[in-house]
Amino acid sequence: ATVPTGVLALLLGTLLWAPWRALHGAPLAELSGDQDFQLFLHKNLEFTRKIKGDVAALQRLVCDKFQLCKEEELLLVRQHLGIAQAALEQCHSRSFQAEACFSQIRNGLSVYRGSLAAILELLPGHASLVETLQLDAANLSSNIQQQMEDLGLATVTFPTEPQSPLPTFSSHFHHQVGSFFILANFQRFLETAYRALRHLAHL
């Protein structure tokens, strides 16, 4: 039996919201009234939404072109490929700190910007969309870096997370599946980053 769409949306909304309840009272109240900070948040919420839309467009292309549409059908191949999700736990931890969250967003954007090279090879006919996405990821990272500097926030480094090189795919099928998961992971990463920015905008 299928779960009604409305029920599914409600369950998903509950799951997505749960980690954020702990953030109220985070030591960022002094920033909430800063007009420049609020402007930064609202502009980059829109920018992140735009990037999410472009990732979704590439996901649809991979689905239509290679019939790779459902993660649950590809989990065994995923384990073989070893494609990891960029960490973003600092954006919804109980000890939320803007420095750590922003730094992880920037690190992740750098990882995915590099990983998009695999998509570029797979979909050469859509190079302009992929290259725009790479440029947008770089610009969002730059925006966050500039805001951190403006707020006097230190960049936090995470030495346990080396910059992973692009996976070497042993077959064209693995390249297709790897690209599918790079996009799926990037979309999840962007959704978490979006919720972090939205949360800060409503403190």
Descriptive key words:
mainly alpha; 203 residues; 7 helices; 67% helix; Growth Hormone, Chain: A
What this model shows, in words?
It is a single chain. The chain has helices spanning 5-17, 29-32, 35-66, 75-81, 98-122, 127-151, 172-201. 28% of the residues are buried. The protein is elongated and about 50 Å long. The protein has a domain at 35-67 and 91-156 and 163-201: Growth Hormone, Chain: A (Up-down Bundle), CATH 1.20.1250. It is an all-alpha fold and 203 residues long. It contains 7 helices and no strands. Helices cover 67% and strands 0% of the residues. Keywords: Disulfide bond, Glycoprotein, Growth factor, Secreted, Signal.
The ordered H/E elements are: HHHHHHH
Number of helices: 7
Tell me the name of the CATH class of the domain at 35-67 and 91-156 and 163-201. Mainly Alpha
Strand percentage: under 5%
Low-confidence stretches: 1-27
Distance between the termini: 40 Å
Subcellular location: Secreted
GO molecular function, one term: cytokine activity
Keywords: Disulfide bond, Glycoprotein, Growth factor, Secreted, Signal
InterPro entries: 4_helix_cytokine-like_core (IPR009079), GCSF/MGF (IPR040117), IL-6/GCSF/MGF (IPR030474), IL6/GCSF/MGF_CS (IPR030473)
Short précis:
GO terms for molecular function: cytokine activity; granulocyte colony-stimulating factor receptor binding; growth factor activity. With 203 residues, this protein is an all-alpha fold.
